[in-house]
Amino acid sequence: MTARRQASTTSLSKYARASSPDPNVRSLDFCNAFWGLADGGVDVLFARMRGAARTMDELKGFWKERAQIEEDYAKRLGKLAKLTAGRDEIGELRNSLDTL
């Protein structure tokens, strides 16, 4: 594969090079950072995107599991709230137990 460098229409590097005394100074702008020998920068971007997609799948699974746990917890708390405690008590203790 031959090395290629494409000029960017949004790049400001032409202005930076115009006042630069050294013509060998390479442009460090983002849009031109991914072209060159073997287009290695593009491979780095693709690898990062694949990693990000895996991370999103992991997070999706995590939040689904968390939602299921929360749902089960809410059901169990609902069942617990229906249980009566201290039905033989009277007075203030009875009022306190009723609020639980």
Automatic annotation (TrEMBL):
InterPro entries: AH/BAR_dom_sf (IPR027267), F_BAR_dom (IPR031160), FCH_dom (IPR001060). Residues 1-24 are annotated as: Disordered. Its main location: cytoplasm. GO terms for cellular component: cytoplasmic side of plasma membrane; mitotic actomyosin contractile ring, proximal layer. Residues 1-13 have a biased composition (Polar residues). Keywords: Coiled coil, Cytoplasm, Cytoskeleton, Phosphoprotein. SUPFAM superfamilies: BAR/IMD domain-like (SSF103657). This is F-BAR domain-containing protein. The lineage of its organism: Eukaryota, Fungi, Dikarya, Basidiomycota, Agaricomycotina.
